[in-house]
């Protein structure tokens, strides 16, 4: 899915429940805001939690330590409803496929809503502590970004099945093809050539990321 027809494409291999993708959110957002007329975005959901995973004490501790590092490097906020609520609650399940299907559904209705849907899911999870694997929550988020609830529900039903499995498999194939190091992986494609972007150098520095990305874009005529 892409926002515009452009000479360059930013491929974003991500997962909605990946903390480091949440860390990269300001980088991608700044790139779109400042370079959107020259840069198309393609989202590739990779399925970090390809099967439902219940959060036990060991997993919660691992996530908390990772989140502390992410907050330190990126400045991204983690809400109390997430830290003291979602991660601490018995029965919390992490499952990437429903939110990925929601991003696909949003993009099928309006290509320009795909990335805002991903951002809404990330913020709902990490800041508001919402259970973003639940269709009712995803419906509410779709309406919050301006999509019609009934149309989104139909699009989500169409995506939540074979379509999302195929999408995740294709995303993982791409990750292997480019020797990506997991989620997130950012690729710049120009003139059929793909270049891995060292996004990890720019956590917390979105303006520097935009400048580095702009330097690699085709010269405007």
Largest sheet: 4 strands, mixed
- Find the structural class using helix and strand composition: alpha+beta
Specify the overall morphology: globular
Classified by CATH, the class is Alpha Beta
Q: Please, what is the average pLDDT?
A: 95
Low-pLDDT parts are: 1-5
- Find the CATH topology: Glutaredoxin
Strand order of the largest sheet: 2-1-5-6
- The radius of gyration is 17 Å
Strand content: 5-15%
Helix-strand sequence = EHEEHHEHHHHHEEH
CATH architecture: 3-Layer(aba) Sandwich
Number of strands: 6
Overall structural domain count: 1
Percent range of helical residues: 40-55%
Instruction: Enumerate how many helices there are, as a single number.
Output: 9
What does this protein structure show overall?
This is DsbA family protein. It comes from Dyella agri. This protein is an alpha+beta fold and 221 residues long. The chain has one domain (8-214): 3-Layer(aba) Sandwich (Glutaredoxin), CATH 3.40.30.10. The chain is built from 9 helices and 6 strands; from the N terminus they run βαββααβαααααββα. The strands form 2 sheets. It has a 4-stranded mixed beta sheet. Strands 3-4 form a two-stranded antiparallel sheet. A hairpin with a 2-residue loop joins β5 (185-190) and β6. The chain starts with 7 loop residues before the first strand and ends in a 7-residue tail after the last helix. Mean pLDDT is 95; it is low at 1-5.
């Amino acid at each position: 899915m892409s926002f515009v027809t452009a000479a360059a494409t930013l491929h974003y291999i991500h997962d909605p429940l990946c903390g480091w993708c949440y860390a990269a959110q300001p980088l991608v957002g700044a790139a779109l805001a400042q370079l959107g007329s020259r840069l198309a975005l393609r989202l590739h959901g990779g399925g970090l939690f390809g099967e439902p995973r219940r959060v036990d004490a060991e997993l919660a501790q691992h996530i908390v330590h990772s989140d502390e590092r992410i907050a330190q490097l990126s400045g991204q906020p983690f809400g109390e409803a997430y830290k003291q609520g979602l991660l601490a609650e018995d029965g919390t399940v992490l499952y990437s496929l429903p939110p990925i299907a929601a991003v696909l559904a949003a993009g099928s209705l309006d290509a320009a809503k795909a990335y805002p849907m991903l951002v809404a899911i990330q913020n709902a999870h990490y800041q508001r502590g919402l259970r973003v694997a639940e269709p009712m929550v995803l419906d509410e988020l779709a309406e919050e970004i301006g999509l019609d609830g009934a149309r989104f529900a139909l699009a989500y039903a169409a995506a939540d099945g074979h379509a999302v499995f195929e999408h995740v498999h294709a995303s993982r194939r791409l990750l292997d093809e480019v020797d990506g190091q997991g989620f997130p992986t950012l690729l710049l494609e120009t003139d059929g050539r793909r270049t891995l972007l060292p996004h990890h150098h720019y956590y917390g520095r979105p303006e520097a990321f935009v400048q580095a990305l702009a330097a690699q874009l085709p010269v405007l005529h």
